[in-house]
Amino acid sequence: MNDEIGPPVVGMVGAGQLARMTAQAAISLGVEFRVLADTPQDSAAQVCVGAVIGDYRSAEDLLKFAADCDVVTFDHEHVPREHLAALERVVAVRPGGNALRFAQDKLAMRDRLSATGVLAELGVRCPRYRAVSGPAVDALADGRPIVLKATSGGYDGKGVWICDSNEAVAEVVSHGIDLLAEEYIPFDRELAVLVARSPKGQGASYPVAATVQRDGICREVIAPAPGLDPDVAVRAQRLGLALAAELGVTGLLAIELFQVGDELIINELAMRPHNCGHWTIDGAVTSQFEQHLRAVLDLPLGSTGAAAKAAVMVNVLGGGDPDLYSRFVHVMAADPGARVHLYGKRVSPGRKVGHVTVTGTDVEQLRDRAWRAANYLSLGTEESTGEGGR
């Protein structure tokens, strides 16, 4: 705990790219920022003076890390629940374990959302679902695939299986992990709403964004979502703020949604900075990373207004050549307005190693520029769509 007069100390459990970008925001706020990293090579550990090496699965390591912090927050949801309870006895933990449970356990999240009246009031629903409790799963309904999800531990497409046959279902069930079975939603597109909430209950919502996923990985985000009915956008933002209050979230809450006509269906929740909000670094008055720090420190929240008419973010995935910087010069020269963010991560095929954001007025031109830059960094090609494009 910081007993001296001075800026507060924020500790973030996890040291991936989310923590790295939060560290950048902490500098401008004058906040002391530390991370609990697995290794010195972790993305945020490379740039944080206060990096501590430890295991988030160890109560001893977590409590030792928290002893020097005023507030503890997270860049992932995987800290064991019993350790969260121990942390909350010695330090402010935001979001707290009671809220974080619904990001850790998909079945608990579905049950909790189904029990609240907020969804019905706003005309939003979850997919039909049930826990998988035995070796048999009901036959596929109406010839549609069934979606099986690991109830905990999944990310970036891992832990999610879209099964189009009973044999495929049986193979996943044979893994012996706790599963949730959901109806397959033939959606029009995917949306994301990102909100912040402070301990005092102040809330703020960013413009609703459209997201494009490939193989379970977010490839592209467009903010605001093009052509979205203003009434639907307001309903999504109201949903985000209402659920943040209902679940007791402090910090950021990201809600991934399926859009089917004017209907909104909840897919996933995350209680931390999120890939759907990376565009805010260059495209909003207050980045999601600064906003998260403001929220967990119970500071007044910043403006969520857009800094440009539109922003397009494309993730940079690793390709066959690990030398990103040999291509960085070309991207900078070809499009000085493209903002490139690299995470200092070891490059491997398909791994998120950075992102590109372009802001302006014409969405299709912005998409073309962002994809060209991202694909050149990844693959050494200037194609404007390429792998994962449309």
- Helix segment count? 12
CATH architecture descriptor of the largest domain:
2-Layer Sandwich
CATH topology of the largest domain: D-amino Acid Aminotransferase, Chain A, domain 1
CATH class of the largest domain: Alpha Beta
Looking at CATH, the homologous superfamily of the largest domain is ATP-grasp fold, B domain
* Content of β-strand: 25-35%
| Helical content band | 25-40%
Number of strands: 19
Question: How many structural units, i.e. domains?
Answer: 4
In round numbers, the mean pLDDT is: 92
| General form | globular
Which structural class fits the helix and strand makeup?
alpha+beta
**Distance between the ends:** 50 Å
Rg, Å, rounded: 21 Å
Largest sheet: 10 strands, mixed
Low-confidence stretches: 386-390
What does this protein structure show overall?
The radius of gyration is 21 Å and the shape is globular. The chain has 390 residues and is α+β, with helices and mostly antiparallel strands. It folds into four domains: 9-93, 3-Layer(aba) Sandwich (Rossmann fold); 128-183, Dna Ligase, domain 1, CATH 3.30.1490; 189-305, 2-Layer Sandwich (D-amino Acid Aminotransferase, Chain A, domain 1); 308-390, D-amino Acid Aminotransferase, Chain A, domain 1 (2-Layer Sandwich). 44% of the residues are buried. The protein starts with 8 loop residues before the first strand and ends in an 11-residue tail after the last helix. Helix 4 packs across helix 5. It contains twelve helices and 19 strands. The chain has helices at 17-29, 59-66, 81-88, 97-104, 106-115, 118-122, 166-173, 230-247, 280-283, 288-296, 325-334, 363-379; strands at 9-13, 32-37, 52-53, 71-74, 92-93, 124-125, 129-132, 146-150, 160-163, 179-183, 189-197, 203-205, 209-214, 217-223, 251-260, 263-270, 310-317, 339-342, 352-360.
